[in-house]
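worker-3 :: picked DUF58 domain-containing protein
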Amino acid sequence: MSQAAHLRSQAEGLATGLPPLLADAEHLASTVLLGAHGRRRAGMGDEFWQYRPFGTGDEPRMIDWRRSARSDTHFIKQKEWQAAQSVMIWVDGAQSLDFTGDKGRETKRARARLLGLAMGVLLIRAGERVGLSNMNQPPRSGDVQLLRMTAALADMAEGAEYGVPETAVLPPQSRAVFLSDFLGDPAPIEAALTKAADRGVRGALCQVLDPVEESFPFSGRTIFDSMGGGMSHETLQAAELKARYLERLAERKDFLETLCRATGWQYHCHHTGGAAQSALLWLYAATERAH
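worker-3 :: tokens ->
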């Protein structure tokens, strides 16, 4: 099996296992299990969705008199908004994502790539247009687009030491998902998210970290090398660095969360030691809340 086929198989397996999980999450079940029009919202369309009581701000011409005649209450007939939405996914290809703290655990790159493609599977099944900002192409729907995304992620060239979200191809008023460790220079990250927000783009930022990066289980003589070899630090007392390191990591998380709040985005930190399904659940819900 080719790398692209293997990645797609993994992503589809992850996506397939999600609906039962969403069934347990009451607020998400209705958005995923409805099939082609899983993200139902009131608006202009042809398909009936639901009746709701006439309320303040509604115009009398909106009343459905046939339904209202069977009750003492006036009702409005709502139709489902069927316009497909555009969702762009950015999966960081930076060298920093090649890290794993355990040979038996997948790298941050592998987890981010799998989550990005699984999101594509779920969104395309929901009838939405999806694209990878890494592909520098507009979002599209259908299985052919999923194949394009699979190939692009499987063949992604290794980038710089740390990545910066690509925003040039984000359609105005669209939604987006950014997957990275976000451990590089914060200024370009802030600039990218601000630029996206200025174009009316809302979305979710998922920081993917290895458990070792959270716990810092080092002591004694230790040499810290960046994945790209651009930075190196040797210490004889690694344990003494733990408090400062954890403080800096907390500051970075707080920076990302504050930036997301300021730009109308949502922030989540996911660990590769945890279940991929939990992160996918959060991402799928976050794109729904981004409307």
